[in-house]
Amino acid sequence: MLNQSYVTEFILLGLSQNFKVERILFVIFLLIYLTTIVGNMIIVVTIIYSPVLLGSPMYFFLIFLSLLDACTSSSVTPKMIVDFFYERKTISFECCMTQLFAIHLFGGMEVTVLSAMAYDRYVAICKPLHYSSIMTRTLCGFLVMLSFAGGFLHSIIQIIFTLQLPFCGPNVIDHYLCDLFPLLKLACTDTHIFIILVFANSGSFCIIIFSILLISYGVILFSLRTHSSEGRLKALSTCASHITVVLLFFVSCLLIYARPTAFSSEKNALIFVTIITPLLNPMVYTFRNKEMKSAMRKMCTRWIVVSDNY
Q1: Is residue 172 within a helix (H) or strand (E), and if so which, with residue range?
Q2: Domain count for the chain
Q3: Is residue 190 a part of any domain in this protein?
Q4: Which is more confident, 266 or 101?
Q5: Is residue 214 part of a domain?
Q6: pLDDT for the residue 78
Q7: 133-162 as b/e, with b when 16 or more CB fall inside 10 Å?
Q8: What CATH number should be reported for the domain holding residue 240?
């Protein structure tokens, strides 16, 4: 890599080159980032402080989903926010590779956690009598470890792909972060094979997992026809939150990576994956979930009582 790559830093064009527009974007994305971190941390703290929720596999997975959302946003947004104040936005080669690794690590882990949550809903609705014996804490822990292993493997493959590329100039990336397709455009070599490899790794990964999730939710919805009206509505309410999150995340990922060529609106799609989706997830799981809202009220009441005693 050192013999082939002469570029030591990359110049990011960001979302805009207009000074006034960047000031507006700074305020918008700062508010989005703060709301994302606070919202996801509230979910984590609420579940940890609620024994009833913490004992449920669904909320056990939700803790990790919220942490992953916070990590995904933190790997992208702070750098982008700071860059709004600089006319020349640069990122070192090492930091670029680190950001690329982090984005795909957390993204790969989130895909697996969403799959685990779908499996949890399948067992809860289709095999309710065996739910407690199937969804044990051991299995939940194994699925979380599997998500880390899968995310790490997926991310390390992307890094290996990228480090094989020679970068000898130019070094200007028309993006707000370091990702595969923008970097492939700068490589001083024929990248057709690398594009196919990216499609085979990221694209096929998204397509397979998304197809499995669609089939599983299809089976769940089909099985609800035998449930009572009350049970059907409760199950639909829970599944609706999961399906919403899955669609928000996967549709953007498929538009970016499940294509043999670069996507013209890749920048907008990546904004949705790395910044908007982590913001929407807390809203989806709190506003549509009675148990979460009830647990949050109890936690706030408990804190108020404790503060009054002091």
Answers
A1: strand 172-173
A2: 1
A3: yes
A4: 101
A5: yes
A6: 93
A7: eebeeeebeebbeebeebbeebbebbeebb
A8: 1.20.1070.10
